[in-house]
Structures are given as C-alpha cells and as structure tokens.
Design a protein that fits this description.
single chain; mainly beta; 10-stranded antiparallel beta sheet; 4-stranded antiparallel beta sheet
Length: 331
C-alpha cells in the first residue's frame, strides 16, 4: 500500500516536470501595439476625372409662372415709355436699357412668349450686373422649383442644362431655364398715359375735347408679387403637362474635363478657398490651402494648391472657430 503511494507521487512529479518544461520553452504572447498619437490611418491621393456641378430640385407644374430678368452690366436703368402689352411677345421685345459707365446702351429684352409683369427698380436707378430689374410672366405652362440658400450658391452661375421628370408622367426631357434664380421684390406696372386732347373741327375758339381711347392690346396688369429664390423652366411643346403635377429636376450649372479631384470628406470648405491635410513620410499632417472648383457632392475639384502626387488625410482638417467678436447672438 505504501509502495503504491510513493509510485503515484513520483509519477505526479514527472508529469509536473514535463508540463513545466513545455511552458518554459514557448515564447510569451505579444500584446498588439498601438499607433503613435496623431498617426494618420486613412489617406487618399488626388485623381483626375470629368466633373459637372449637378443639383437636384423638386418642382411643380405651374400656369403663367413669374421669373426675373437681371441687369447685364453696371449702369443707369432707363425704361421705355410704353404701356405693357397683355399679348405675349412673338419675338424678343425691347423694354428697357442699361447705360454703362462708358455711355454704351445695353438692351433688356423680354423673351418670346412672355409679357412684362412688373418693374423691380425705379427709372434712372443705378443698378449692378446681375441685379433683378424686371419681372416677366411666361404665357402658358412652366415648371417652378423653389431653392434654399444652400442650393443657391451651387447654381448661381449660368444654368447650362436642366432635365425634368414628371412624377408618374412624361420624362426625362430638356427644360429651358428662364431668367434668374434670385428672389424678386414686388413689381409695379406704370400708370397708362393720360388721354390725348385734340381741338374739335367746330367753330374757332371752342374748347378742346378728350377723344376716347381706342381699344387695343395695352393695359398691363396689377404688377407681380414678391417671390423667393426659385428656378423657372419651360418644357418642350410636345410634353403633356397638368397644373400642380410634381416634377424632379436635375440642374447642371458647369462642366469640366479631366480635372484634379478629392473626396469631399478630405477637404475643409465647399466653395472658393479650402484646406487639406498632406500626410508626410512620418505619417504626420501638414495643413495647406487649396483653391476649390466644381463639386458633384462626392468629389470636389482642386484648382490649385496641390501637385497631384500628395497623400491626403481623410477626414480633412477642421476649420478654425470664429473669434468671439464674429459670433452671432446665439453663439
């Protein structure tokens, strides 16, 4: 009995020795290291591609929509002394002139198919290029899309192409943009000229009498109401429209070919000047200024500031906070 206990104790010592020998020969498990503070883990490189500035809008089919016409240059505005017609213009119609600083006249024409809805500025007023000066009313169906301030700056340039799709209806089709997207003040229509007086063919010395006005197409309207920022466009004649129908618009304001771009997440700023972080060989950031161009919401054009072979950090740098004196009343 005693001999079995000794043998069992010896076997346990041998097993323990074997296990101890195995454990001592293995390498200790290493703990994964962490990157140094400030190390950039996500990067991109500039690429080149064709790019267009596109904005999606929601619109509505509208009868006789009002749109604005702007001054083509800085100068003095002069209106023609004519009572507005109620008949849509069959060709571009001259309604005002802007005289520039050099004394050269620039005509303001109503588009074909529209009538004068109101004067937005006084006669002989000083105006600047791009300022709305006349409101016009398109005769017939049009499409009106309201615009908020964030969209306005993306489509403030010339609208080169508008495509429209009527919900559960015709489309897509091209839609011709009219006038400006700027908000319009209320427009006024000038008073008609007083009736002319001519002497009668009666005896000499008889007082003149007023001749009744002959019926014609003059008379104008009550003027136009103020509007917010909006885009007005006219579809082709063959498109069937229903007043109030909902429309989706795709607006292209500018195009560029083979331009340098970065993802919008890598850039601080959305228009004009911006900033990006260049990642060096030591994986540290260096913030540089860049000039921005077009954007489609996914990538943004880099006009200058980069060579094209840099490594750029994602996300981009944070813009500095405004100084206390520049903050609004709500901070």
């Amino acid at each position: 009995m005693e001999s079995r206990r000794v043998a069992g104790w010896g076997a346990a010592v041998v097993v323990a020795g074997v296990l101890s020998g195995c454990g001592s020969s293995e390498e200790p498990v290493a703990t994964p290291g962490l990157a140094a503070r400030g190390t950039v883990l996500t990067t991109v490189k500039p690429t080149r591609q064709d790019l267009s500035n596109q904005v999606g809008l929601s619109g509505t089919v509208t009868i006789n929509p009002v749109f604005g016409i702007v001054a083509p240059t800085d100068g003095e505005l002069r209106f023609l002394d004519k009572t507005p017609s109620k008949v849509p213009a069959v060709r571009p119609k001259w309604v005002a002139t802007v005289w520039d600083e050099d004394g050269a006249p620039r005509r303001i024409n109503l588009p074909r198919g529209s009538i004068l809805a109101g004067r937005l500025m006084d006669d002989r007023a000083d105006v600047t290029a791009g300022m709305p000066i006349i409101s016009a009313r398109h005769s017939g169906y049009g499409i009106v899309a309201e615009i908020d301030s964030a969209q306005a700056y993306r489509i403030s340039g010339a609208v080169t192409d508008v495509r429209a799709q009527i919900k559960n209806g015709p489309g897509p089709f091209s839609c011709t943009a009219l006038g400006t997207i700027a908000a319009l003040p209320a427009g006024s229509i000038p008073e008609p000229p007083p009736p002319t007086t001519q002497p009668t063919t009666g005896p000499s010395g008889a007082p003149p009498v007023s001749l009744p006005e002959q019926p014609d197409d003059t008379g104008g309207s009550e003027g136009s109401e103020a509007t917010g920022m909006r885009l007005v466009c006219v579809p082709p004649g063959g498109v069937k429209l229903i007043n109030g129908a909902q429309v989706t618009l795709q607006v292209v304001t500018e195009k560029a070919a083979k331009v340098m771009v970065l993802p919008v997440e890598a850039v601080a700023g959305v228009q004009g000047r911006g900033k990006v972080d260049i990642v060096g060989a030591d994986q540290q950031r260096k913030t540089v200024d860049v000039v921005l161009g077009l954007t489609d919401g996914k990538v943004v054009q880099i006009k200058s500031g980069l060579k094209g072979n840099e490594t750029i950090a994602v996300p981009g740098p944070d813009l500095p906070a405004a100084p206390d004196g520049a903050k609004g009343p709500n901070g």
